[in-house]
């Protein structure tokens, strides 16, 4: 130990002299980008301290953090805009951010604005929820900055001189807000629907596990609440023998899944809280987020003879939704769950898939049984097929020709 | 767009100060991982570290004219980061109790000696999952007192000699040395403790 007193806050631990020398040697080598000595003490120091090189989780958002840092630096430069900058900004915003339409004298300033805008759009992030989060935080920061500006601005000022300065200051911040908002908002709404889609897919994964556990403890049968259906299976919220969704609700009733697991985030009417512990079914078709395979009489067993590609569940069917509401169906319509951009399906083997059309291999329509598919096929073949030799079906049949 | 790959940090900095916006971005890119690691480890709070990251570079921007470009950029950047971190910790009045003072086998001087050769550190490619490693490193650092943590992190990330650190922190050279030794010993000790706890928790 040197002449200096040892520190108080040393935690009560010390190194042996040989270890201490190894630490000194290690730091010295590091400063000069040199090689760490080969003795076992130095190697131990290197092993221990290189723990500090362990990446932190937030490093993943590298691209957008670099963008935001660059952007926030520009934003915080509090110099009021020059007259040229202000003029360029006004013209640029008036023209809907069209650089071409700026006066030639304002082109250099326009270029800067354009650069700023590109800065805000560039940057990639693989995880959409992290991106949404960052955008939210940035917007919040800018908003708080503006709020702070406004509190200064709110002081009543009659003299135009002072006023002009503050407005310019405000504009420079507002301009960035505008740019960021105009660019970020469309990204944000897209990100939101993507993250809903991901959450929905996560639901299907959870439910797939629940099906497995259920079948395991129920002699391989899939959830079923009734021995068979009466006249219909469309009567959601009535009794189990009239509602196929009561079969799916069995998973919730038997605590294999929660109501939240079966609620797609993009269905505004979906319920996530189990209010009635004795319930057998969802209360109405609007609350349903997913459609379940229509169960045959006696139920369905998870058995080796059933092909694994059989679809167990999917995003809710628009076809039964229309049928229940008494509307004509559109066979190839996508599920309403994801802005009609497609639907998830969960297959018997627990795998999930995103379909952009509700049609599986072999032209099997997800929403319809094969006989109806065939009828629709025949009708479509008939459309436009008048050969010119057809006759009215008796005197009361109206039928006019060319 | 200029290509900075063959330029030193200091050359890139001068380009930035001369108005090259691409150079500023280049500096941020070069130091992204290291600075974020340093700040996260220092304040132990990810969201706060992200804010500090932005504030640090903002300060670099604002203080650009005061930087002596004949000196090295790296230590300057980390000094700014450390100052920001210290301000934040002070504001939060976040004084963690040093759990290291738990009763242990003390040697006769009332001080326990740590033998670094006995500290088990898995190699980076060992089975330990990266997220778990990240978490354990943070736990181990959180148990260090603030001065020890700071001197350990600064020395490691700034790559500075004792003399430089002493100058930066404004404390005597001998103190820096003994603090650094204590910091390494305490870090070794708390790493042992958190890995042991984690293994016993995991069964």
> In which order are the strands of the major sheet of chain A placed?
2-3-4-5
Strand content of chain B: under 5%
Percentage of residues in DSSP E strands of chain A = 5-15%
Which of globular, elongated, flat, extended, rod-shaped describes the shape of chain A?
flat
- Coarse structural class of chain A: mainly alpha
* Distance separating the two termini of chain B: 55 Å
Q: Major β-sheet of chain B, in short?
A: none
List the uncertain runs of chain A: 1-10, 119-136, 149-171
Low-confidence runs of at least 5 consecutive residues of chain B: 94-110
Number of domains of chain B: 2
- CATH class annotation of the largest domain in chain B: Mainly Alpha
Order of helices and strands of chain B: HHHHEHHHH
- Percent of residues in helices of chain B comes to 55-70%
State the end-to-end CA separation of chain A: 113 Å
Specify the number of helices of chain B: 8
| Count of DSSP H/I helices of chain A | 10
Q: What is the CATH architecture term of the largest domain in chain B?
A: Orthogonal Bundle
Number of domains of chain A: 3
- Write down how many β-strands of chain B occur, each being a DSSP E stretch of 2 or more residues: 1
Task: Characterize the structure shown.
The complex is a heterodimer of chains A (402) and B (203). By secondary structure, chain A is mainly alpha-helical. Chain A is built from 10 helices and 7 strands. Chain A has helices spanning 17-31, 40-49, 62-76, 83-94, 107-121, 128-153, 160-217, 245-253, 318-324, 370-382; strands spanning 13-15, 290-292, 311-315, 343-347, 352-355, 359-360, 364-365. In chain A, the strands form 2 sheets. Chain A has a 4-stranded antiparallel beta sheet. Chain A has a two-stranded antiparallel ribbon with strand order 6-7. In chain A, helix 4 crosses helix 5 (107-121) and helix 6 (128-153) packs antiparallel against helix 7 (160-217). Chain B is mostly helical. Chain B folds into 2 domains: 9-92, Rna Polymerase Sigma Factor, Chain: A (Orthogonal Bundle), CATH 1.10.1740; 99-201, Orthogonal Bundle (Arc Repressor Mutant, subunit A). Chain B has 8 helices and 1 strand; from the N terminus they run H-H-H-H-E-H-H-H-H. In chain B, helix 2 (21-43) runs antiparallel to helix 3 (46-62), helix 5 (130-142) crosses helix 8 (173-201) and helix 6 packs across helix 8 (173-201). Mean pLDDT of chain B is 81; it is low at 94-110. Chains A and B meet through strand 1, helix 1, helix 2 and helix 3 of A and helix 2, helix 3, strand 1, helix 5 and helix 6 of B.
């Amino acid at each position: 130990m040197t002449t200096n007193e040892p520190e108080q806050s040393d935690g009560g631990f010390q190194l042996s002299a040989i270890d201490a020398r190894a630490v000194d040697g290690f730091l010295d080598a590091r400063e000069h980008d040199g090689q760490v000595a080969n003795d076992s003490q130095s190697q131990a120091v290197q092993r221990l301290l290189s723990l500090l090189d362990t990446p932190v989780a937030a490093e993943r958002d590298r691209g957008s953090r670099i963008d935001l840092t660059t952007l926030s630096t520009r934003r915080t430069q509090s110099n009021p805009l020059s007259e040229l900058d202000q003029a360029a900004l006004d013209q640029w915003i008036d023209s809907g951010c069209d650089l071409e339409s700026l006066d030639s004298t304002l082109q250099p300033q326009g270029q800067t604005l354009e650069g700023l805008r590109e800065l805000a759009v560039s940057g990639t992030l693989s995880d959409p929820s992290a991106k949404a989060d960052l955008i939210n935080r940035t917007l919040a920061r800018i908003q708080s900055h503006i709020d702070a500006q406004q509190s200064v601005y709110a002081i009543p000022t009659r003299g135009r001189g002072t006023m002009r300065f503050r407005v310019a200051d405000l504009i420079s911040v507002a301009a960035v807000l505008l740019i960021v908002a105009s660019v970020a908002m469309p990204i944000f709404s897209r990100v939101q629907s993507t993250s809903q889609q991901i959450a929905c897919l996560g639901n299907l994964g959870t439910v797939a596990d629940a099906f497995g556990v259920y079948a395991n403890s129920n002699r391989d049968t899939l959830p079923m609440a009734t021995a068979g259906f009466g006249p219909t299976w469309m009567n959601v919220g009535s009794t189990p023998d009239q509602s196929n969704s009561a079969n799916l609700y069995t998973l919730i009733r038997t605590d294999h899944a929660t109501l939240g697991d079966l609620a797609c985030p993009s269905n505004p009417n979906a319920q996530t809280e189990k209010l009635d512990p004795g319930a057998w079914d969802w209360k109405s078709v609007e609350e349903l987020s997913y459609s379940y395979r229509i169960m045959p009489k006696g139920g369905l067993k998870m058995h080796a003879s059933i092909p694994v590609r059989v679809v167990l569940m999917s995003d809710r069917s628009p076809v039964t939704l229309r049928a229940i509401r008494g509307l004509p169906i559109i066979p190839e319509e996508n599920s309403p769950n994801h802005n009609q951009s497609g639907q998830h399906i969960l297959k018997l083997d627990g795998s999930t898939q995103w379909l952009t059309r509700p049609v599986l291999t072999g032209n099997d329509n997800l929403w319809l049984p094969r006989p109806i598919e065939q009828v629709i096929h025949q009708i479509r073949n008939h459309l436009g097929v008048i050969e010119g030799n057809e006759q009215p079906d008796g005197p009361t049949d109206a039928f006019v020709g060319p | 767009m200029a290509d900075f790959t063959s330029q030193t940090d200091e050359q890139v900095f001068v380009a930035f100060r001369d108005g090259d916006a691409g150079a500023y971005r280049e500096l941020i890119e070069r130091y992204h991982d290291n600075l974020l690691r340093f700040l996260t480890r220092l304040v132990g709070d990810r969201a706060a570290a992200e804010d500090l990251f932005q504030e640090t570079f903002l300060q670099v921007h604002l203080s650009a004219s005061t930087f002596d470009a004949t000196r090295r950029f790296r230590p300057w950047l980390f000094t700014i980061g450390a100052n920001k971190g210290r301000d934040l910790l002070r504001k939060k009045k976040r004084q963690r109790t040093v759990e290291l003072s738990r009763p242990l086998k003390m040697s006769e001087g009332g001080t326990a000696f740590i033998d670094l050769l006995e500290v088990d550190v898995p190699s980076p490619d060992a089975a330990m999952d990266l997220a778990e490693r990240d978490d354990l490193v943070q736990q181990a650092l959180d148990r260090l007192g603030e001065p020890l943590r700071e001197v350990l992190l600064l020395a490691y990330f700034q790559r500075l000699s004792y003399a430089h650190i002493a100058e930066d922190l404004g404390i005597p050279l001998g103190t820096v040395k003994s603090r650094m030794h204590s910091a390494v010993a305490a870090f070794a000790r708390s790493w042992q403790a958190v890995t042991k706890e984690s293994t016993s928790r995991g069964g």
